[in-house]
Amino acid sequence: MKNISATLATVWRIAGPYFRSEDKWAGRGLLAAVIAMELALVAVNVLLSQWQNRFFNALQAYELDNFVKEIWIFLVLATIYIALQVYKLYLNQWLQIRWRNWLTGRYLGEWLQGATHYRMQLKGDAADNPDQRITDDVRNFVEQTLSIGLGLLSSIVTLASFMVILWGLSNKAPLHLFGTDIVIPGFLLWSALAYAILGTALTHWVGAPLINLYFEQQRYEADFRFNLMRVRENSEQIALLKGEGAEREGLLRRFGSVIENWYAIMSRTKRLTTFTASYGQAAVIFPYVVVAPAYFAKSIQLGDMMQTGSAFGTVQDALSFFVTSYRTIAEWRSVVARLDGFEMSVNSAAHLAEHEPTIGLAPSASGTAIALEQLLVKLPNGKPLVSADAFAIRPSERVLVTGPSGSGKSTLFRAVAGIWPFGTGNIAVPGNAKLMMLPQRPYFPVGPLADAVVYPAARGMFPPEQIENALLAVGLPDLAERLNEDGHWNRMLSLGEQQRLGLARALLHAPDYLFLDEATASLDEPSEARLYRLLADKLPQATIVSIGHRSTLDAFHTRKVAMVEDGDVHVLSDERAKAEPSTAG
Questions:
Q1: Secondary structure of residue 465 in the 3-state scheme
Q2: Short-list 420, 401, 400, CA closest to 411
Q3: Which of 231, 358, 395, 501 is most buried, judged by most C-beta within 10 A?
Q4: What are the distances in angstroms from CA 286 to CA 292, 313, 316, 374?
Q5: Max Cα separation, the chain?
Q6: Which CDD domains does the record associate with it (predicted)?
Q7: What pairs with residue 428 in β-bridges?
Q8: Mean per-residue pLDDT, 513-526
Q9: Whose CA is closest to 434, among 543, 577, 532?
Q10: Contacting residues for 384 by C-beta, under 8 A, at least 6 apart
């Protein structure tokens, strides 16, 4: 019972905000309409149950007029029933897509807000494969919540309605044993209750392990799919290393977990289906066995007997809701658990500063320089990495940051960008300054080349002529003619071409502070020199901070900062470098 209460509380926490959102009136209206139609269908079923009694009594009495009359009544009831079913489904689907649209937008907004998605990866939270949570699990949550909720409501109302019918039929058809009528008020109702309660208890006992098995199945499937995607994205490196055999072995090992868990689901489902199928078939004949003695004793008519069988079956179905829906409920609870984990992971990453010390970001006091004050950058496990105090990067400087691999150069850049929270101290950035980070492997969204170059700016912010000029300037004349071509540019271009494309992006956005994290490392030295001269010429007012290992970069920077090991951390040590004249060409 405690687990059920916790699940329902989680469901309300996930579902409730939609019905209080800006789309609340449409959502509430559609839900009310669907519920009203569900209740109307129960009412029609009650009328059909009464019709069944009259219809079979007319057959038994050979009353043609009543028979024809009941046919016409049935046609009217059937028409109403069909219309209600059709529009209940239509409005249900309409509600599903509106609800899913809102919930997907909410999750995307929270996941992509303020680098939360990145912090979730750094923290190693349990919300694996967020893509599946936002696609499959949101869809399943909406569909199954409505299905189970409406099904439960229908079962409760149906039970209440047909309990009255069964109680009345119990008075007409008393328990008849050995030629004697035994009067037990509502004995048909008590028989249905006992039958359904026993079936529900046994079904839960047999099927309970399915909840965890479905949870694990989704996790194994997502893990397998994610690693297939990694092979596709890194196919060139795998081919160069001839790593197909190792990848195949790794993929089959992960798929082995899928198969093993599926066999466990098969075994448990077989047991559950064996019981539920047997239970369902027995329910077909059970009410007639109970009421048959009264019929053959001529205590009731054929119509009463048929109505009893139908009403008993309806009550039994209503009471057996958890039996027939157990597999769906098991899947639904695993979906709820995964979305709950995703929400907690997003919330934990978004409010990291509230739970542990983090690096503070604030507007610069001077308003012109980036200042590091008592900064200690740490790894996610708490190990110190970089220390800096009273360190400033002033406007229009050209700063080269060097140091051994693993000394924390890239991590320091991430801290300045505001996406690395682990550590203490403060980083002050000029309030209106525009920062841009270019990593060694830049990111380009799938789509038109023009959109990839100007990312993250909106389409149309830069005219095509300006984009073409930027591509020509960085040495990509062939791409200048392909601005409207769709493509997966991270796959289609070499790393050197991607780095040139990243610098074209920098020329377009013209940031105040440009951080280059080995952003030209895949280019030959003459090309690298030409591009640094281009940046100096096109962005003369920009502050450029580079991470690099080549000695040839010294000539393009006015200041050199080395990462020097000092005990357990690396500290920033200032050096000087002579700048080359800024001439493009």
A1: helix
A2: 420
A3: 501
A4: 10, 9, 10, 80
A5: 116
A6: ABCD_peroxisomal_ALDP
A7: 362, 371
A8: 93
A9: 543
A10: 376, 377, 378, 568, 569
Least confident of 31-35, 345-349, 524-528: 345-349
Residue 582: pLDDT band with limits 50, 70, 90 = very low
Residue 411: partners with Cβ closer than 8 Å, 6 or more residues away: 377, 379, 385, 386, 420
Does residue 287 contact residue 308 with C-beta atoms inside 8 Å?
Answer: yes
pTM of this structure: 0.71
553 in Cβ contact with 546 (< 8 Å): yes
The residue-averaged pLDDT of 277-293 equals: 79
Burial of 37 (0-12, 13-18, 19+ CB in 10 A): buried
**For residues 144 and 153, is the Cβ–Cβ distance under 8 A?**
no
The torsion angles phi and psi of 407, rounded to 5 degrees, stand at -85, -10
Residue 93 in tokens? 């689907």
Higher confidence at residue 28 or residue 223?
28
Judged against a pLDDT cut of 90, whether residue 130 lies above it is answered with no
CA gap 485, 494 in Å, rounded: 17
Instruction: Using pLDDT thresholds of 50, 70 and 90, give the confidence band for residue 345.
Output: confident
Calpha distance 573→585 (Å, rounded) = 33
Q: How confident is the model at residue 579, as a pLDDT?
A: 46
Residue 122: what residue type?
L
pLDDT category of residue 275 using cuts at 50, 70 and 90: confident
pLDDT more than 90, % of the chain: 41
Residue given tokens 């140091």 in the structure block: 403
Q: Quick one: pLDDT at residue 399?
A: 94
How far, in whole angstroms, is CA 399 from its chain's centroid?
42
Kindly report the length of the chain: 585
The residue-averaged pLDDT of 8-27 equals 92
- For the packed helices 138-172 and 2-15, what is the interaxial angle rounded to 10 degrees? 120
Count CB neighbours of 392 within 10 A: 15
**Who contacts 382 (Cβ-Cβ below 8 Å, separation ≥6)?**
422
Cβ atoms of residues 19 and 28 within 8 Å: yes
Q: Give CB contacts under 8 A, 24+ apart, made by 89-92.
A: 91/30, 91/33, 91/34, 91/37, 92/34, 92/146, 92/150
Q: Which residues pair with 372 in a beta bridge?
A: 391, 427
Q: Do 519 and 439 contact (CB within 8 A), yes or no?
A: yes
Per-residue three-class SS string for 243-262: CHHHHHHHHHHHHHHHHHHH
Give the pLDDT of residue 196: 76
- Round to whole Å and give the CA distance between 311 and 315: 6
More confident position, 14 or 363: 14
pLDDT of res. 369: 87
Q: With beta carbons less than 8 A apart as the criterion, state whether 528 and 552 touch.
A: yes
DSSP assignment string, 371-397: EEEEEEEE-TTS-EEEEE-SEEE-TT-
